[in-house]
């Protein structure tokens, strides 16, 4: 049996450390670009040693803004240091940020079936690298590239003109799903073949996937779309909203189909029809919005 000498052991340790640092560096999201040559320094002051000059076009990761004069950064080869925060040197000032309005999973790819790599708490702010489409944001999650559902943020993704769809088409589509889904909070059949749905995902399924609308994910945000409608002036295809927790926050939505009835996904009836004037739904009714032209 061979003995490992202290020198060999030290060499192995250094090699493993270097490999670990390389992996760490490769995991970073180099979301910021150098736009003008800038000194890369050991410390956040002009008297500190210059490691080298970063050239225009280099990709870097901004770890944090130290103050209004300095950024702590990581270069693409894994080195950390400091550069001037002046907008002349990077496009960091052009970065866009979004705040989570509800807790949301961060995924490896822009699809609901992709592996989770983290979780963003309600109120947390993240840097948006790219708007993938109206459903997904590419974000900087703790120095890594990740993807999160756009409708969970106060971030306006590019919208499309409202499709020319009739109320009768909307109602027919909604009714075609009766009995198809069991209720499950957070389920999103509009992006998967999941046989579960919640109320706002059902509305997205009908309006977005089937008819090309761009409604957000959660009911309280859907309640900001379109125009306000009095309860006495409801038309088929209007969205009706409720506060079932009686805490002042909209948390349920359905599609009005006429004669006081609306179709929705709910724990009590899966995808089914209820009446606005029944005791429970009348007591919890909040407002209505018209999103059809």
Number of strands: 20
Over all CA atoms, what is the radius of gyration?
A: 26 Å
- For this structure, what is the CATH homologous superfamily of the largest domain? endopeptidase domain like (from Nostoc punctiforme)
Structural class category: alpha+beta
Enumerate the strands of the largest sheet in spatial order, edge to edge or round the barrel. Answer: 15-20-16-17-18-19
Helices and strands, in order, run as HEEEEEEEEEEEEHEEHHEEEEEHE
The residue ranges in which pLDDT falls below 50 over 5 or more consecutive positions are 1-28
CATH class of the largest domain: Alpha Beta
- Please indicate the count of domains: 3
How far apart, in Å, are the first and last alpha carbons? 82 Å
Helical element count? 5
CATH fold category name of the largest domain: endopeptidase fold (from Nostoc punctiforme)
Q: Overall mean pLDDT score?
A: 81
Portion in strands: 25-35%
CATH architecture of the largest domain: Alpha-Beta Complex
Helix share, percent: 10-25%
Shape: elongated
